[in-house]
Amino acid sequence: MPLVSPTLVPDGQRARLAARALERPCGLLDALGAPVRDRRRCRGRRFGLASVLALWFAGVLVGQQTFAAVWEWAVDLPADLLPAFGLRRGVPSERTIRRLVERADPVALDKALSGWIARATAVADPPAGPRGLAGDGKTLTGARSFTEAGAMSQEAVVEAVWHDTGIAAGHQRVVGGDEIAAVETLVGRLDLADVLVTVDSLHSHTRLARKIRSRGGHWLFVIKGNQPTVHANLTRLPWDRSPDLVTTTEKAHGRTEVRSLKALSVTTAALVGFRGTKQVVELRRRTRRKKTVTSKPTVSDEVFYLVTSLPAEQAHPRHLAARARGHWTVEAVHHVRDRVLDEDRHAVRTGNAALAWAIARDTAISALRLAGHQSIAQALRATARRPERVLQIIDLISAT
Question: What is the pLDDT of residues 43-77, one digit of tens each?
Fold first, then answer.
């Protein structure tokens, strides 16, 4: 897919996009039309569901953070751009936008938007080896409510993000605080053929491992103290007889990190206590921090253990270590959602609105990345200045 910068829109671009909008609506309408079901009665329906959702997502794409802000932005759109969203009778009210987003099925919405992005990221010749996919949960801090007894509950969502691109592959609501069950549900919806799934230590258990293998994928898990038996078995393995296979040194932010890696093939999973394990990895990290005005120089040593279903013939330990670090891509996406899109202060919580906004934010970040933007903050400012750039991004992704 070609990379272009929406900030470099030539003169007359809006006129060309407007003319094309009169001929056919943007491709996002097709993506939203089939999966997301409109549950309204036909009588009195003035705006199509796909049109309203596409307009709302376009507002998210320019950095609007509330339903009112999306509506105000939509009202100011040039009239000749509205047909691109399938709108020929003006702009729906803020109440209509809010009500339809709150009632939209989050699974169908996720399927529509994530599928729309996935089609744009598909490559004819994928790289060799399994592709890394990180799963992690995030609490939507602002979306909290209280019961009559005063107990507080918060919306939360788990998501799967590709290591190499930072693009979201799917989302799932966390019900009753059970993030483990939400990850398993999400994994059950994804095609994991030739995919290596990474999760944090909370989800490192055999039930999820079996689910991933049943979907055609492989797993790479971190083992910590929440798996005491497995962790104890790993510490007793003959690591002292195994040489360091990889040693790397990195200097940044006033510290020097030296990482060494050892790996052992596993022929009997019972020795580890984690069914399906084909290879185990020991990662040692020594960190030296320089003296500062407020702190003395320090040295710290840490040991991590990884277990995976990939045998050594399919994955060199160096690649496994890279995948373990690549898992933090999902945290980088969370950082953008919090710092740039101000998600933690977004207080919407009625119906499915909180989850819908989380899905839209991830999709917006993915769309801007695919359009060639490195800085999401700069991209949001650019699309806000020129509304035709939103259609350019949507049209670029839909055309692939």
Answer: 767 888 999 999 999 999 999 999 999 999 999 99
> In total, how many domains does the chain have?
2
Does a structural domain hold residue 339?
no
The structure tokens listed for 373 are: 């933007």
Same domain for 74 and 34, yes or no, is: yes
For 199, 212, 214, 241, 329, the CA distances from 217, given in Å and listed in that order, are 13, 5, 7, 31, 19
Domain housing 17: 13-112+351-398
Q: How confident is the model at residue 12 (pLDDT cuts 50, 70, 90)?
A: low
Residues 305 and 356 in one domain: no
Q: Which helix (H) or strand (E) holds 252?
A: strand 246-252
- Does residue 78 lie in a domain region? yes
d(CA 181, CA 146): 23
Q: Among 169, 146, 171, 168, which residue's Cα sits nearest to residue 158?
A: 171
Alpha helix stretches (DSSP H) within the chain: 13-23, 27-33, 49-61, 67-75, 94-103, 106-121, 179-189, 206-214, 228-235, 317-326, 329-339, 353-370, 376-385, 388-398
Among 283, 306, 321, residue at a domain's last position: 321
